[in-house]
UniProtKB/TrEMBL annotation:
Family in the record: Belongs to the calreticulin family.
Protein name (database record): Calreticulin
GO cellular component, one term: sarcoplasmic reticulum lumen
PROSITE patterns reported in the protein's UniProt record: CALRETICULIN_1, CALRETICULIN_2, CALRETICULIN_REPEAT
Species name: Acanthochromis polyacanthus
Amino acid sequence: MEVISEQAQERTNVSWCTVIGPGTPCCCPIAGRHLFAGATLKYSPLFSPRCIWCTVQESNRGLRGSRAEMGKMQVLGVLAVILAVFCVHAKVYFREEFLDGDEWRSRWVNSKHNSDYGEWKLTAGDFYGDAEKDKGLQTSQDAHFYAVSSRFEPFSNEGKPLVIQFTVKHEQKIDCGGGYVKVFPSDLDQADMHGESSYYIMFGPDICGYSTKKVHVIFNYKGKTHLIKKEIKCKDDELTHLYTLILNPDQTYEVKIDNEKVESGSLEDDWDFLPPEKIKDPEAKQPEDWDDHAKIDDADDTKPEDWDKPENIPDPDAKKPEDWDEDMDGEWEPPMIPNPEYKGEWKPKQIDNPNYKGPWVHPEIDNPEYSADLNIYKFDNIAVLGLDLWQVKSGTIFDNFLITDDVKEAEDMAKETWDVTKEPERKMKQEQDDLKRKEDEEKNKEQETEADEEDLGEEEEEEEEEEEEERKGEEATKDLEEDEEVKPSHTEL
């Protein structure tokens, strides 16, 4: 440990220990500012409002000789314990960015459960922010199932957060297909992975038509999968989006899209893992004299004498047709029309019920089938991340996979990857769209010009045909007239 200079001490002025990394000042309200080189420390109220350096120094001042040495050793022992507690570094269990070309094939296993699974290819797609960083696994065949997975060292998330993060790009204008990941236990046979393989967690977007555009958050609890009861809308455009799931040991969760929270809550509230804690008392019944009618009929109200009128009456303006034959058509009756004087069913007016007690609330009791479980969030032997999905139109790109126990680690990776490339990608996509729009406009103009020329050509041909017909007609008339002139008359004969 090293003590920072007095000048540096004067520049540091906060009231509690906030050391967040090696070489960062640690501040103590009692003894000033100190520097702990190579350690990550946080203030602990379990010991004292002093930083570790202050505690050591104070002990040294209060003890003498061997006793001082013993006290120093004891304090250093406390220091070691605190460092063990607070010097906890983020653990990255799995990270995949596909930055080494085809080497990804050595880490990922294609399932052979079905012989016709779709093929994956490594590409950044038709538009991207960085041609290399944005390379990911892309589905390449329409109307296919896909199944591929990657294994890592098994771990348990007991007592710590579990963060799952990845990016998805549906550049093909997806109409129906999955964009989610599955997290599996260590006993998964990767070569036989399929849709019925047992998994721990399923998380990510799913799109099918206009009705299904949601984010799945599915957990396996005691052998049964449970879907979230809330509706989380996913992104459905063609750009890359970042999906993050945070599962905390206090049984809470958070879902983020593009680093913004879109949903959060309690595992017990938002999934049906457990039966309800309270149930309606089956022995309780509403008392017979409990009046829950807020309004009642006014007993003094009476129906007016002229109330009852028929709903329909004969049309007074209707007349029997002149050709009506009663022998053939029967007796003529005028058609019925709605009665303008009809008032409907009479009902007495309503008044406040003097005996109204309000709605009866069914009393609840503890559910004998309910048993609290503080380990719903916990999964042991997490070891495989897989893509097991179906796509009608292929082209989705998966990238930037991360499984860690630290939210900040996920945020930092997002800043290094998606945050850097999202704007260049959007710009490239916009430029492509603008170019395509311009080409389409020019193509449409060419087609319109060709169509106009064709129409003009057809009109010219029609005019030529008409002129030819007219010329032939004139020649025929002329020939006929000439024949009439040379023909001898009767007198000449």
